[in-house]
Amino acid sequence: CPPPPAIPQGQHSGNSSGEFVFGSVTTYRCEPGLQLVGQDTLRCGDNGTWSGAPPACLEVTCPRAPSIANGWHSGHSSGRVSRGVTVSYSCKEGFELLGNVSITCTDSGLWSRPLPRCEGAW
User: Superfamily assignment of 61-120 in CATH?
Assistant: First the structure.
């Protein structure tokens, strides 16, 4: 096989000699802060081509911040959110915020901490 395909903002484990025999396997990884999308390994086939398409390295993002009943958050209402962004929650008048005031988009693309909730202040 020829050398494995290069991917922007990532690298593969293939050797630099350019010799890849049938059955050779190369593994891809991304630069820090990026997420590998697709298969992380390719295999050199008996026909001299690599199995499948190479993966891609994409920015880690979280889905839009979840809404809470009787409250709102400081984040955007549409689209994905970059890692490291913190969203703060507030409650409507007459309701009290219970739990964490804010959540953060983590390196894994998930929101940190359980969501707060707004309960009626009697």
Answer: Complement Module, domain 1 (2.10.70.10)
Question: pTM to 2 decimals?
Answer: 0.66
Mean pLDDT of 10-20: 81
For 37, residues 6+ apart whose C-beta sits below 8 A from its C-beta are 55, 56, 57, 58
Tell me how far apart the alpha carbons of residues 59 and 34 are, in angstroms, rounded to a whole number: 5
Long-range contact set of residues 35-41: C-beta below 8 Å, sequence gap at least 24: 35/59, 35/60, 35/109, 36/10
Kindly tell me if the per-residue pLDDT of 87 is higher than 90.
yes
Say which CATH topology domain 10-59 has: Complement Module; domain 1 (2.10.70)
Indicate if 61-120 has the same CATH topology as 10-59: yes
Q: Is 113 helix (H, G, I), strand (E, B) or coil?
A: coil
Task: Write the burial class of residue 54 (CB in 10 Å: 0-12 exposed, 13-18 middle, 19+ buried).
Answer: middle
pLDDT band at 121 (very low <50, low <70, confident <90, very high): confident
Domain boundaries, the chain: 10-59, 61-120
